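User: Please fill in residues for this 264-position structure.
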């Protein structure tokens, strides 16, 4: 049986669908196995007859989705890595995040921001408008702001080590925008410790008077913080319950990017 035979043919053919389902179950079993797995192990894990598993594995080996070792064991093949690299290269963060941002915006009714780090600043990549009157200074697409003044930026600083945070403070001098801005290393380190413990970051009128924000990180498939989502609203409309909703939306974007949260 050739792999093309498993993937081609009329959709109405239940046999073709069944072969594809079995292929997927074997790939999942190989992914779950930390070491190359034997035919017996794979057949048991997928509840397939050994002869059926062998035929499908042979077809997947020919297509380089699976590699057969000299010892008669199997592991995931290099073709999967090649295809994964293509998928990753075609991912557009803004396009991935937009539906989750819109859904969050519809739930909360306030502006949702997507930002990423560029050197010592946050760059705003996308924004949903709240449709309400709101003075905006930095929360515009293409706008920039120092990392320590924004909820988004604090997430990136929190992901840095202690020395990198000290280096950032030395480079920038921690300039302030409002009386609430964190302008000392001690105050910033204390704030970042809270961010690490709670997994969300806040901007308490630190970038703009009268404006509060809460943000959660977005991770890529390697676990790196590559962006973040935030809700921004006038201080009198800020709701503490938004933190969980923002975190859930950011986690959904991370999952769409291929991130799997480590098991505790």
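Assistant: Residues filled in for all 264 positions:
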């Amino acid at each position: 049986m050739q792999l093309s035979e498993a993937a081609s043919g009329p959709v109405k053919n239940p046999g073709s669908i069944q072969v594809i389902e079995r292929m997927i179950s074997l790939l999942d079993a190989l992914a779950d196995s930390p070491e190359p797995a034997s035919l017996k192990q794979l057949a048991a894990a997928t509840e397939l007859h050994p002869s059926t598993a062998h035929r499908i594995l042979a077809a997947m080996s020919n297509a380089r989705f699976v590699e057969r070792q000299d010892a008669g064991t199997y592991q995931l093949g290099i073709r999967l890595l090649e295809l994964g690299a293509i998928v990753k290269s075609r991912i557009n963060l803004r396009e991935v995040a937009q539906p989750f941002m819109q859904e969050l915006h519809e739930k909360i009714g306030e502006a949702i921001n997507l930002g990423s780090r560029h050197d010592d600043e946050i760059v705003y990549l996308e924004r949903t408008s709240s449709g309400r009157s709101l003075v905006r200074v930095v929360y515009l697409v293409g706008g920039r702001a120092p990392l320590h003044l924004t909820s988004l930026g604090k997430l990136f600083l929190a992901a840095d080590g202690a020395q990198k945070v000290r280096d950032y403070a030395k480079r920038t001098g921690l300039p302030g925008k409002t009386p609430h801005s964190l302008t000392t290393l001690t105050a910033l380190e204390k704030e970042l410790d809270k961010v690490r413990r709670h997994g969300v970051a806040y901007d308490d009128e630190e970038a703009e008077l009268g404006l509060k924000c809460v943000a959660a990180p977005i991770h890529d498939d390697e676990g790196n913080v590559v962006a973040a989502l935030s809700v921004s609203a006038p201080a009198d409309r800020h709701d503490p319950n938004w933190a969980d909703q923002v975190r859930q939306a950011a986690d959904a974007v991370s999952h769409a990017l291929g991130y799997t949260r480590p098991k505790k």
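For context: The domain at 92-256 is CATH 3.30.450.40 (Beta-Lactamase).
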